[in-house]
Amino acid sequence: MSDQAAVLFANDAFYVAFMNHDIEAMDDLWARIPTISCIHPGWNHLLGRDLVIESWNSILANHDGPSFTIEGAMANIYNDMAVVICYEEFKMATLVATNIFVREEGFWRIMHHQASASPPPPVSGENNQVKTIQ
Q1: How far apart are CA 63 and CA 20, in angstroms?
Q2: Percent share of the chain, pLDDT over 70
Q3: What are the pLDDT digits (tens) for 47-63?
């Protein structure tokens, strides 16, 4: 599997864990070696594994959260680091997300997630890799 495909697969796994409220899978997807961080919409910056995983435990414990789809995931790879930009499309809002991954023990693991309000994604062009997860 190419690095690009592996990073996009890791990004898909992140959203599958999110949508399935799978706390164990979410924990496994986050890096352990570098200091991780996360900025949820409307939250302050969270720095460090304990705070980030605690935030996901709180979010994933709410099984009544809204459903959403992921659109337009694009990965850029820089040696052992990768940046994925994608859109989280909810019924009433669209967020653009930045997910930064590091290669750790041969696996791509997330080290930073940030999502914020955005207009809908642009129409897919040849430079975009569109992948929808539902």
Answers
A1: 9
A2: 91
A3: 999 999 999 999 999 88
pLDDT at residue 125, as a whole number: 53
Mean pLDDT over 125-131 rounds to 46
Reported as a pLDDT band with limits 50, 70 and 90, residue 124 is low
**How many helices (H) and strands (E) are present in the chain, helices listed first?**
3, 6
Strands, sheet with 81-90, edge to edge from the N-terminal-most edge strand: 46-47, 37-39, 107-117, 94-104, 81-90, 68-78
Asked if residue 68 lies in contact with residue 90, where contact means CB atoms within 8 angstroms, the answer is yes
**Could you state, in order of their start, the residue ranges of all structural domains in the chain?**
3-117
CATH T-level topology, domain 3-117: Nuclear Transport Factor 2; Chain: A, (3.10.450)
CB-based contacts of 1: which residues, under 8 Å, 6+ apart? 9
Q: Which of these, 84, 32, 41, lies nearest to 59 by C-alpha position?
A: 41
The helix or strand, by DSSP H or E, that contains position 46, with its residue range, turns out to be: strand 46-47
